[in-house]
Amino acid sequence: MKYVVLLYDGMADYPVPALDGKTPMMVASKPNFDALASKGEVGLVRTVAPGLKPGSDVANLSVLGYDPKVCYTGRSPLEAVSIGVNLADDDITLRCNVVTLSDEEKYEDKTMVDYSAGDISTAEAAELIKAVEEAFGNETYKYYSGVSYRHCLVWHGGTTDLGSPTPPHDISGKVVGPYLTKSENAKELIDMMKKSYDVLKNHPVNVKRIAEGKRPGNSIWLWGEGSKPALEDFEKTFGIKGSIISAVDLLKGIGLSANMSVPDVEGATGYIDTNFEGKARQAIKELENGSDLVYVHFEAPDECGHRNEPENKVKSIELIDSRVLPIILEGLEKYDDYKILICPDHPTPIVTMTHASDPVPYMIYHKQGEIAGVETINEETAKATGNFIEEGPSLMRRFIG
Questions:
Q1: Exposure pattern of 338-368 as b/e (b: 16+ CB <10 Å)?
Q2: What angle is formed at CA 80 by the lines to CA 235 and CA 279, rounded to 5 degrees?
Q3: 368 and 307 part of one domain
């Protein structure tokens, strides 16, 4: 038996005025997904338990079968593992976004223009993080560059009692002052954020980006604090070998922490310009090389939700359907039996531009166990089936049987 999970990050949504009151799942042309849903189990699953924040970290751990209430130690430690940082037991990590802020004189008066600095390239961002490390790095603080706008700060001997710093994608278009944590423990972190604007605003990378009409990465934003992760080995836990394919450090870190195979795919970006075919082919290759389950993560729907891009969110769903599913289905045909699970990790509604905790649609197709499903899958048709999984981590057990 082979198992494929296709995780459409943030795909679920609320009715969107720009889409005539429909959701992107309702509008998108997705014949392959719908064909599977017509012969598979469809329902809703609560991937974010009450009391937990609806981050991609918590939600993806849940879909993978891990209980975040037991194993979750923060988002940034998982990303640190992904970029090769060896963490000590007393290390605290923080996510370090390279962001675009407006140019008001006082930092508190600036607006979060873009949490991704215009999808800054990895090479450009590495130069900016190098400048930040040169300015603030010492025996206590160490900055590490990651992918695109996503980077990491390791705070030796730090604390996670920081007053819950706000994720930058939650405050797009808003003045940042009210969202700067007031925790005394975070004073040095906030000070580095403020000073980073002066370090970066006239950096050659940003001078060039502005001249090219691009948004500058003119500040860092620290959030997502956590301690060294401790996930159980996936194979020991579920009895099958697993792989994770993703463009983002968070998912790669989860895979590495769970001792799963985590291959790189050239051209994987985390947006609608990603190498869809490359990720699909790598998924089939992982199965051929001995993995029993491959978890293929697509960030694009989530990014489009954060950016208030309803048309692109629809497009991202359609691109996965037209460029990924045909390759996956063809590659699976050689096996006597297989299962496919398709679901989002959480909703990222266009109208709020941030994550939500609502239950999400799921679909489980079993080659040797086809059943009557739904004609087309979306938030409403999934709800109408009456199938509901309250405990998100139980979805993986249900999937692999």
A1: bbbbbbbbbbbbbeebbbbbbbbbbbbbbbe
A2: 60
A3: yes
Same domain, yes or no, for 267 and 158? no
- Tell me, rounded to whole angstroms, the distance of Cα 265 from its chain centroid: 16
d(C-alpha 31, C-alpha 325), whole Å: 10
Considering the domain architecture, whether residues 247 and 388 belong to the same structural domain is answered as yes
Give yes or no for a contact between 174 and 112, defined as CB atoms under 8 angstroms apart. yes
Task: Give the 3-state DSSP-derived string for 25-68, with helices as H, strands as E and coil as C.
Answer: HHHCCCHHHHHHHCCCEEEEECCCCCCCCCCHHHHHHHHCCCCH
pTM: 0.84
Kindly provide the residue ranges of all beta strands, DSSP E only, lying in 212-312, ordered along the sequence. Answer: 219-227, 242-245, 293-298
Q: How is residue 249 written in tokens?
A: 């450090």
Q: What is the pLDDT of residues 331-385, one digit of tens each?
A: 999 999 999 999 999 999 999 999 999 999 999 999 999 999 999 999 999 999 9
Q: Are residues 245 and 362 both part of a single domain?
A: yes
